[in-house]
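Feature request, filed as a ticket because there's no other form

It would be nice if the structure record came with a short human-readable summary line next to the tokens. Right now we just get the raw output. Example of a typical job, pasted below so the devs can see what we mean:
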Amino acid sequence: MQKQLNLRMTRQRKVILEELRKVATHPSADEVYEMVRKRLPRISLGTIYRNLEILSENGEIQKLEFGCTLKHFDGIAENHYHIRCIHCGRVVDAPADFDVAVNHDLKNATDFKIIGHNLELIGICPDCLN
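Raw output as currently delivered:
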């Protein structure tokens, strides 16, 4: 569950959010830094890290912390699943119908009131299979 903060949308946060929402990939903080620097050449890597954390804590974006040490960020804040390649680290969205099936099955499988869950799908992407 995300906590909602009274978030002031600074120019830097706005640009980070816009750049992150432009891509279908799930970039690392370093990759977000390279994307944002094209529009804000004087921004620091520390500012990127700090603002990604703030945007994540506020529920504007998702911070993806898989079994690897590298964090990825997703501009889509709504809950959905991801698949990570164990060879190259590429992260893609899982098909939407998979998301619906898992949520439906979870609600019907227990007496618990489900308030959230984490699910990591791992595999080998098509590029690494070749």
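Something like this underneath would help us a lot:
The domain at 1-75 is CATH 1.10.10.10 (Arc Repressor Mutant, subunit A).
The chain has two domains: 1-75, 79-130.
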